[in-house]
Design a protein that fits this description.
Chain lengths: ~400, ~240
């Protein structure tokens, strides 16, 4: 039966090419927006290298300190993370790293900006960077405050013309760093690993940063398993409540180990409960084209009243008809989905080529294809169910006469 | 009122329950303002293996009666029994199953699906049974051969003449080997020669054991039936 219905579905689409084209454009555009959004989301959050252990990773990011007359909200400082984050139960490794911030150099008389991230040695053991030259620095270099650096390929090309960079030096903010490793570029939107240059936390003048409660650091906790997350959070909360804030204007502190997704929500100041609003917006966005397709479907299917009557006469139940018409609609939306997927690939290439997002390497993959497929089927079922139900309620005699009762 | 006698039914079948039995059936169509009585107080028994013609002027209720017999519509009052089984209050699913298993329809305007090949059109009743694709194909082919269209399996309805299209419709009606064949003016859109061919087909099917009920305006066709029921204004007059 499935083959017969599929065969008919494809033939029905060819019956009215204009109607089909209008439907496909509507479906394709809707699914294109959804698939592009998914692809961008995938680019930011999917566990691509170097964040291959993302499922076991928690981040300590935004911190809030409050006192009687003061309230500060910022990234945490080294002291805060060092005193509260070390030795949490269930944590296999912990790293403290700064945000990527601008650092400047002079190349052939031009001022060049690079993003510099300062890290400890554990950073390289939690994140799986792809080294094309050399190796990362370790705890030894960090404890000695060595002026060494790992750079990305683009920085190598920029400073050394694409030739080998190992052992060569580059100057950032007036300080010289010896290159010990070169890694593949990491996209700008990858919050945790992104930088052009990575250098030891200690390779900077002074040690005032060690005493800061608030600063520009981030704690990266690699748990043994996601099952350890609750215990990690509970212990952290306990330590936080007992934190010694004497000598500061603060009385209470707030921070929470959380996933990358929650961290990004926090950066964007979006509450997790806003996901519900996003879901409503998502379905709202789907609603208009669904309604449009429903109307097209009803008018198309009413042309087939005679067929409905015949099928009913020869034993099709209402359920059979609903299944047939929903299937036909899903075929239509799957074709729209395939068009949208191809258009998404094109849009991703344009986005990558535009360099709008530094080091952005937007592309489609099997996971996005799976989502596109899911969107298409959902869209097909949503827009096909009501017309199918309505047609299945046509009185067989009226259907044979080609009229509605 | 006594039901009509069944004289032309073979002796061995007379003992069986009638193929169709209508008892004091009434059909009324209602809209907000108008109430139209299509059939009233109709009592009729159609024997197993009978070839019955229903005649009468336009609007007298012939098609309505056929639709009731085919479980495409429900009576407003009275009882309807098919093969001794009371189907008056059967639900949609039961009626659909019964139609699929026991009833075949031939319509005046053929009602073939233009996008489907002749073979695919004939397979339609079998889609709603547990039949494998191979078996469906085999049965559909056999039905088309029976109506003389074995060489037109992969043609589309638009490529056939009216007579050939009606033969396809007959093949579709018989592919599921129904006990009851209902034909609504099966020759109404055909010239007399093609009409004769279709009538010969229906007679052949009846001789093979199917009960055939046929609505017609054509007295020549009704003469070939075992019995003719005449309707006027929703009543049986003969």
């Amino acid at each position: 039966m499935l083959k017969s219905h599929l065969k008919l579905a494809l033939k029905v689409l060819r019956r009215r090419p204009f109607f089909t084209a209008v439907s496909l454009v509507g479906i394709g555009l809707t699914l294109l927006v959804l698939t592009v959004t998914t692809a961008v989301f995938d680019h930011v959050f999917a566990p691509y290298p170097p964040e291959v252990r993302q499922a076991r990773t928690l981040l300590l990011s935004f911190t809030e300190l409050s006192g009687d007359q003061v309230r500060s909200r910022s990234w945490p400082g080294y002291r805060f993370l060092d005193s509260l984050g070390r030795g949490l139960p269930g944590v296999e490794r912990m790293s403290i790293a700064s945000q990527a911030s601008s650092a400047f150099s002079y190349l052939n008389g031009s001022r060049v900006r690079s993003y510099l991230k300062r890290t400890d040695g554990e950073f390289w053991r939690i994140l799986a960077f792809d080294f094309v030259e050399g190796a990362p620095y370790g705890e030894e270099e960090v404890s000695r405050g060595s002026s060494v650096a790992v750079i990305n390929q683009t920085t190598r090309d920029r400073f050394f013309g694409g030739g080998p960079a190992l052992g060569r030096s580059l100057e950032l903010d007036g300080r010289s760093y010896r290159v010990v490793g070169v890694v593949r570029d990491v996209p700008f939107l990858r919050l945790v690993p992104f930088a052009d240059v990575w250098a030891p936390l200690t390779a900077q003048p002074g040690d005032g940063w060690r005493r800061e409660l608030l600063g520009d650091m981030m704690g990266i906790l690699l748990a043994r398993s996601p099952a350890d997350f609750p215990a990690i959070r509970a212990e952290f909360a306990s330590r936080l409540s007992g934190m010694d804030l004497s000598g500061t204007p603060y009385k209470t502190a707030y921070a929470r180990p959380q996933s990358l997704l929650d961290t990004v929500f926090e950066i964007m100041r979006v509450d997790r409960s806003a996901i519900g609003i996003l879901a409503v917006l998502f379905f709202g966005f789907l609603a208009l084209p669904v309604i449009n397709l429903v109307n097209l479907n009803v008018s198309r299917a009413l042309e087939r009243a005679s067929e409905i009557g015949v099928r009913r006469a020869f034993g099709a139940s209402r359920r059979n008809l609903v299944a047939q018409f929903v299937l036909e609609n899903v075929v239509l939306t799957l074709i729209g989905g395939l068009l949208a997927f191809a258009a998404t690939e094109l849009a991703m290439r344009v986005l990558t080529a535009s360099a709008l997002v530094p080091y952005g390497d937007f592309h489609v993959n099997l996971r996005i294809f799976g989502w596109a497929l899911a969107f298409a089927v959902t869209f097909g079922v949503l827009s096909g169910a009501w017309p199918a139900w309505r047609l299945s309620r046509l009185h067989p005699v009226d259907a044979l006469r080609g009229s509605l009762r | 009122m006594a039901t009509a006698a069944i004289e032309h039914v073979p002796e061995e079948r007379k003992a069986q329950a009638p193929a169709i039995h209508l008892q004091q059936v009434e059909k009324v169509y209602r809209t907000d303002r108008i109430e139209t009585v299509a059939l009233q107080n109709l009592n009729l028994a159609v024997g197993e293996g009978e070839l019955l013609a229903i005649m009468g002027p336009s609007g007298c209720g012939k098609s309505t009666l056929l639709h009731l017999m085919g479980l495409l519509d429900v009576p407003s009052r009275g009882r309807l029994l098919l093969g001794g089984r009371d189907m008056t209050t059967a639900g949609d699913r039961e009626r659909s199953r019964y139609r699929n298993a026991a009833i075949g329809f031939v319509f005046q305007s053929f009602h073939l699906i233009p996008e489907l090949s002749v073979l695919d059109n004939v397979e339609i009743p079998l889609l709603y049974r547990r039949t494998t694709a191979g078996e469906r194909r085999r049965l559909a082919q056999a039905a088309l051969e029976r109506v003389g269209l074995g060489s037109r399996l992969h043609h589309y309805p638009g490529q056939l003449s009216g007579g050939q299209q009606q033969r396809v419709a007959v093949a579709r009606a018989i592919v599921g080997q129904p006990r009851l064949l209902l034909a609504d003016e099966p020759t109404g859109n055909l010239d007399s020669q093609m009409g004769d061919e279709i009538m010969a087909l229906l007679e052949g099917l009846n001789q093979d054991g199917a009960t055939v009920v046929m609505v017609t305006h054509d007295p020549r066709l009704s003469q070939r039936a075992h019995r003719t029921v005449r309707l006027f204004d929703g009543r049986q007059v003969q």
